[in-house]
């Protein structure tokens, strides 16, 4: 007896959404045990995770704030993955972007807002491009797998941040946190008085732009073709390597932009904790969002929702906030696993030659 | 053990009978084997048997189903129906381990050797347990098997450093080391130089002399005649016949392999496009196919009878001169050159048919022409523009239309029909910064109508049937009005209606002055469409003739390597 | 400039132990054709399981056992995702790492609140006052037993032969009657166990407790080391020692006047940069195991 996955002929339309729901149910079931073990009711917990943060403007604010950085990294990763470039280095590119913005913010302190902010954002994007350049070139020129090269630059970026903060950028209070950036480098709030800063608008505009490019432009079509079938793309005259390079650099730019935005919008200074794994979470966001701009926006909000909810649950239900991360990573694994079934069906097959009426005998004859 | 019978000279029952006079038990008997991949039926009720001490050749083109059949016997694929008997008893072969246990060994065209390991390690692979590797015993095993084969092999040589012939010998050693009594050789001489072929044949004779049964898969008549006792011809998943090799003439075999025109359908003739009307005298079965219900290759593509007295036709008005020039094209490969110096010119307004059994270099030639592969030497020019080694972008720009045999490598399955239709030509559909979706859609609708594609512009192209996908490719290529066209197996897997459509279009192009290089394994198709036919064998062009002087037997012989054989 | 060479050597061997174990675990899985990006999570889970086992059951050995079990399970999870389901290996690995880290932090928070975690019965060093030789038993075992064992396993056993074949040419292995799936699962299980033990070393030996971020990216260092070592055992060990020595060196150098100016971060970053450089210089001729990253399906 063996369990096999066999290619199926056609994929019914209803299958994908149904499978996603199945994945969600699986996650619920898998986490119910640990949640109970922690002394909380799973239903109450999920209610807190998903629904509660949406009640009340203060927490909706927090949800949006939490969603912004992973919106940037999610978009960055989605663009790269869509073209078949496995950018695992969004974390490092995000940090590079934060560094870039800080450079401008510390050394060009006195620029006024309207000049300072775009400059800092630009610096962040540029830093992201620089950080993604080497792995991209290695891949396009020499065919060197970008997964490892992008991955390895993540800890290097963090070390760079730490080195700067322990050295030349050490705060005047002696701690490894930079001084505040110049006053022009504060991202204004969208709604006066709230903490939601203009970064959300930038992210939204970026998402729309990406959506338009991907779905409506020649560049986007080419990029998608390269990701879906490099052979067919090549056959059709598309410059595959150039497309990959561009996609990699754009991805770095977006992640870097996110890092810059984070510094400008929250904290207004550089610290070692500027990223809480946003780059890695971006992979989750992109994957769950099916690599589309719209999907990324929704999932980023969802994960922001869960993050805030998890904080809430930890206060109220004594449920450790890390359950939120468990849910998100488990959801990603469950969804991709379950979606595999779209292309295959599971079949129990007796390992035997097919013949009507013949009894299958294992092992054959000698 | 009696001396091995001279191949081709004695019936199998005289072989290693033990003299008891009773009917010998076949080593292997396949009965009624069926296998489909999705909608494509690859094996259609195959009966085959192999006697001890016999070399049984399986003759046929690629795509006829030989390799699938052997994979079934070796457990790499499971049949959908039918039985396998080993030594007269039913056997269940669900994996290579089962096949090995049933004493079957297989040597494929793509060696299943681990290049970075040594010969000994490769042999130990299927015999070693989990514990300590006994390399000394392994070396002894290598020496032993090499002895049986009559060759010398260095047990500690790294496999990837060996020559192709030597690697093949290692493959055979692997089978021998497992005490196989049935040896399947799948196109073994495809990559061998002549000297290595001789060594192989000697080894085969030695092995059959020891009682082994050999299944020899090939499309090369000369070799089959030399080495086999019996030959079975496979075409489109069915065994056409099994005959003793001695009694079969090469002409007979060639004819069986490539197929005579079958009775039933008279299709559109080679006249100018406006006369290319639909069929007369269709059978019921053909009517079903025409309704598009069935898209199975095995249901039989209608054979095309060359109309007696068909007009070869003068070249269409307009362009004259060579639209496609290939000079001295060479492509190196493992062992021997894949393309061994091809010189070919296609004039405007003509269709040149390239005949040949799959695996003789056609695929690679088309890859080079399409810009997907760089030749080792030689030149290619499209309409006077040198495109040797150019990227597809430049080849397309020079005006070459391309239809390759692997549709799935030419279209992006998840993108829509409309998107695929414009993929080669995006700049044309820009409006400002973005794509002009209305124009793209209109373009798609126009082509869908013009080419009778059964699909909507937004359907993902991967959901289309083979025939419709081919039409999309055709539409995409032809919509640019190419001056030269390379079409490789353009009607493979298509039903009657789609096949006709393609043929009509190709003729239309020709009349409009384009030059077409038509590469096809279907001789009827070539005979019906081409102005002249060239044959490719082992990477070189071996024969050329005007189409109206060609006949299937002669072509079949050329295709099977019998150069200069009498028709 | 005085560098305490003996102290350096001592520290090097200790620091290298988790790296060597993790790298060997990754070598085993990658040689079988699977890139296991779950290594960071597995090491983390091993550290936590070791800590928890020791705390609950009263002895570091129990903790070690717990780590082994967790490592095997983590490997099997990656196997389920990549071998049976054919999920993209990058996604499967990163997802597993994120999941495992979150699960451990969750459990830790649940049990201990947010404060500092208790000390646990830990391993002690043998030969405590002898320079260089004062290492943990685990270190001795790792270098003297595990390294040769893995080397022997890959090179001289039937299992190792199968594993390498599966990673180089799964079609050939399949044709030889080897179960590609089972071999890969086994490789992942063994590799996972080694990785987890490497992680457990951090909590059971070096730290004597558990903190968040205890692995601090060591799993990614192991990935780098494996490529740097071209998937061979001895160079991987050397790479681990090299990384450890640089790490130990910068602790010393930071207090010497000449090197005070060089940020320690540069030193720590060096190994990563060296690996990337190595990849850039020779990566295009890098002979990845033939079936690297490709799931295997027999149609």
Question: Can you describe this structure?
Answer:
- The complex is a heterotrimer of chains A (366), B (567) and C (299).
- Chain A has helices at residues 15-37, 42-51, 57-82, 90-107, 113-142, 146-166, 199-216, 218-228, 230-235, 240-265, 278-288, 293-316, 322-340; strands at residues 2-7, 344-349.
- Chain A is mainly alpha-helical and 366 residues long.
- Chain A has a domain at 65-301.
- The longest helix of chain A has 30 residues, at 113-142.
- Chain B is of the alpha/beta class and 567 residues long.
- In chain B, the strands form five sheets. Chain B has a six-stranded mixed β-sheet with strand order 6-7-8-3-9-10, sandwiched between helices. A six-stranded mixed β-sheet of chain B has the order 16-19-20-13-21-22, sandwiched between helices. Chain B has a four-stranded antiparallel β-sheet with strand order 2-1-4-5, covered by helices on one side.
- In chain B, helix 4 packs across helix 5 (164-177) and helix 8 (250-258) crosses helix 17.
- Chain C contains eleven helices and no strands.
- Chain C has one domain: ABC transporter involved in vitamin B12 uptake, BtuC, CATH 1.10.3470.
- The radius of gyration of chain C is 19 Å and the shape is globular.
- The chains are: A mainly alpha (366), B alpha/beta (567), C mainly alpha (299).
- Chains in contact: A-B, A-C, B-C.
- Chains A and C meet through strand 1, helix 5, helix 6, helix 11 and helix 13 of A and helix 4, helix 9 and helix 11 of C.
Give a quick set of tags describing it.
A: mainly alpha, two-stranded antiparallel sheet, 13 helices, disordered C terminus, C: 299 residues, mainly alpha, ABC transporter involved in vitamin B12 uptake, BtuC
Residue share in helix of chain B: 25-40%
Q: How many strands of chain B?
A: 22
Major interchain interface with per-chain residue totals = A-C, 50 and 48 residues
Strand adjacency order, main sheet of chain B: 6-7-8-3-9-10
In N-to-C order, the SSE pattern of chain A is EHHHHHHHHHHHHHE
CATH architectural grouping of the largest domain in chain B: 3-Layer(aba) Sandwich
Fold topology:
The complex is a heterotrimer of chains A (366), B (567) and C (299).
Chain A: E1 2-7, H1 15-37, H2 42-51, H3 57-82, H4 90-107, H5 113-142, H6 146-166, H7 199-216, H8 218-228, H9 230-235, H10 240-265, H11 278-288, H12 293-316, H13 322-340, E2 344-349
Chain B: E1 28-37, E2 40-50, E3 55-59, H1 66-73, E4 81-86, E5 89-90, H2 96-101, E6 104-107, H3 119-124, H4 135-149, H5 164-177, E7 182-186, H6 194-209, E8 213-218, H7 221-227, E9 230-235, E10 238-244, H8 250-258, H9 284-290, E11 322-331, E12 339-347, E13 351-355, H10 362-370, E14 377-382, E15 385-386, H11 392-397, E16 400-403, H12 417-422, E17 430-431, E18 434-435, H13 437-450, H14 466-478, E19 484-488, H15 496-511, E20 515-520, H16 523-529, E21 532-537, E22 540-546, H17 552-559
Parallel strand pairs in B: 3-8, 3-9, 6-7, 7-8, 13-20, 13-21, 16-19, 19-20
Antiparallel strand pairs in B: 1-2, 1-4, 4-5, 9-10, 11-12, 11-14, 14-15, 17-18, 21-22
Helix pairs in contact in B: 4-5, 8-17, 14-15
Chain C: H1 5-31, H2 39-57, H3 60-84, H4 89-112, H5 137-156, H6 158-168, H7 170-175, H8 180-207, H9 218-228, H10 233-253, H11 264-282
